[in-house]
Specification:
Distance between the termini: 71 Å
Largest sheet: 3 strands, antiparallel
Oligomer: single chain
Mean pLDDT: 74
Strand order of the largest sheet: 2-1-3
Structural class: alpha+beta
Number of helices: 2
Number of domains: 1
Length: 79
Amino acid sequence: MFRKCLMIIAATAALAVSFSASAQPVDEWYVVQDPRTKRCSVVERRPTTESMVVVGPHGYPSRVEAETGMKTVTVCETR
């Protein structure tokens, strides 16, 4: 019985961790550029592949600030 209770507690804890990890609020927003098309956009996660490159000085605390910051990044200016 004790073993069964431990298994249920462990499974419940693991499930809670997986749900809380996916429901975390976004801490930082990033201005990224697609090197192929040279188009910039704002994303909520730092890119981990070479298909997008972070441009600008840092991550931003909100989407609005990232969108405003994107307007000041020279490589993102429309010509």
